[in-house]
Specification:
This protein has about 130 residues and is mainly α. The chain contains three helices and no strands.
Length: about 130
C-alpha cells in the first residue's frame, strides 16, 4: 500500500502566496472619520482645560498660549488623520507619499509658526509648549 503524497503535510511549504485579509475601504474611512471625531473631542477638552489653567498661570497670555497650542495640535493631528482618510482606498505607495508629504509640510509650517510667534510676547510660552 502506498500513501497519497498529493496532499501537503502539516507545516510543509506550499507554492501559494499567504492569504492577507482585506478590509473594505468604507471600513477604513469610517475608522478615520471616528478618529477625527475623537480628535475634535479631545482637543475641545484640552482647549477648555488649557484655557482655565492658562488663565490661572498667566492671565490672558496664558489663554492665548493655550489656544495657540491647541491650534498647532489640531493642524498636526488633523492633517495626519485627513491624509489617511483620503488615501484609504489608494495604493500603499500613494498613501505613503501623501503622508510623508503632509509630514514635511507640517514641519515647514511648524518652523514658520515658531519663527513668527517668537517675535511676539502676547502669549505665555510655557503654556503654549505644555498644551
Amino acid at each position: 500500500m502506498s500513501a497519497d503524497n498529493s496532499a501537503p503535510t502539516e507545516g510543509a511549504p506550499t507554492n501559494e502566496p499567504p492569504v492577507v485579509p482585506v478590509v473594505p475601504h468604507h471600513v477604513n474611512k469610517e475608522i478615520f472619520q471616528s478618529s477625527m471625531r475623537y480628535l475634535f473631542w479631545l482637543l475641545a477638552g484640552l482647549k477648555v482645560l488649557g484655557v482655565v489653567v492658562g488663565y490661572f498661570v498667566g492671565k490672558m497670555p496664558g489663554v492665548w498660549g493655550a489656544l495657540l497650542g491647541v491650534a498647532v495640535a489640531l493642524v498636526f493631528s488633523g492633517t495626519t488623520i485627513w491624509s489617511l482618510m483620503h488615501t484609504a482606498d489608494k495604493s500603499p505607495n500613494y498613501t505613503m507619499a501623501v503622508v510623508l508629504g503632509a509630514w514635511i509640510g507640517k514641519m515647514f509650517f511648524f518652523v514658520i509658526v515658531l519663527a513668527v510667534l517668537g517675535q511676539f510676547d502676547f502669549y505665555h510660552r510655557v503654556v503654549f509648549a505644555v498644551v
